[in-house]
């Protein structure tokens, strides 16, 4: 009967050696450089923003007039305005946005018009008509897009504003939401010093 014990002891020794080799393999894996062990799924996508800028999780571009919600998340003011009108909840954590937030937004920078030389050297900017009259200046990124399309000779083009698809009609000097084509507002290309504007992109 005693002669039957060694095989059992041999199996125990084999299991112990196998476990030891497995632990050694795990240690060797940890010592490998991170570049060799990291797969494509773990790689982060390069940020489109410049150093010091904040990415907007809604438009996936660097924030224009970044606005911070009470929950701490930051988005472009116009992107946030579109979300507020659709569901009034943060696009990240889904917490409710205060009803009066758009009246007193927590802006991380105040949109001040850049000082430009007067006369013929002053650059043209784009403006849109307010609901209650007056002119609002388009935010910088949108204004550049309008100017590029205008100089390219386009009669009209489509773009996203506040989460809605708009048509900019240069021939008739109007903009309108594609789902509300009869509610058009006038647009204006003019030097800022010649326009009495109410603010920039809805921010006074």
Automatic annotation (TrEMBL):
One of its GO terms (molecular function) is ubiquitin protein ligase activity. Its EC number is 2.3.2.27. GO terms for cellular component: cytosol; nucleus. Pathway: Protein modification; protein ubiquitination. Residues 1-50 are annotated as: Disordered. It is found in: Cytoplasm, Cytosol. Ubiquitinated; autoubiquitinated. Residues 109-189 form the WWE domain. Residues 21-41 have a biased composition (Basic and acidic residues). Residues 56-94 form the RING-type domain. GO terms for biological process: protein autoubiquitination; ubiquitin-dependent protein catabolic process; Wnt signaling pathway. Keywords: Cytoplasm, Metal-binding, Transferase, Ubl conjugation pathway, Wnt signaling pathway, Zinc, Zinc-finger. This is E3 ubiquitin-protein ligase. It comes from Lygus hesperus (Western plant bug).
């Amino acid at each position: 009967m005693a002669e039957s014990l060694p095989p059992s002891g041999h199996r125990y020794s084999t299991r112990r050696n196998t476990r030891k080799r497995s632990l050694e393999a795990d240690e060797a894996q940890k010592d490998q450089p991170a570049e060799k062990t990291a797969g494509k799924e773990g790689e982060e996508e390069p940020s489109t923003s410049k150093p010091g800028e904040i990415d907007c999780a809604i438009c996936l571009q660097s924030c224009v007039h970044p606005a911070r919600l009470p929950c701490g998340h930051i988005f472009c003011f116009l992107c946030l305005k579109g979300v507020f009108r659709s569901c009034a909840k943060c696009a990240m954590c889904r917490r409710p946005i205060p009803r009066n937030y758009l009246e007193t937004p927590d802006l991380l920078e105040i949109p001040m018009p850049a000082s430009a030389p007067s006369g013929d050297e002053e650059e043209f900017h784009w403006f849109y008509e307010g609901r209650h009259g007056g002119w609002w200046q388009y935010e910088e990124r949108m204004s550049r897009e309008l100017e590029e399309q205008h100089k390219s000779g386009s009669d009209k083009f489509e773009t996203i504003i506040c989460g809605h698809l708009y048509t900019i009609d240069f021939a008739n000097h109007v903009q309108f939401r594609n789902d509300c084509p009869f509610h058009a507002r006038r647009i204006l290309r003019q030097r800022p010093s010649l326009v009495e504007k109410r603010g920039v992109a809805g921010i006074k």
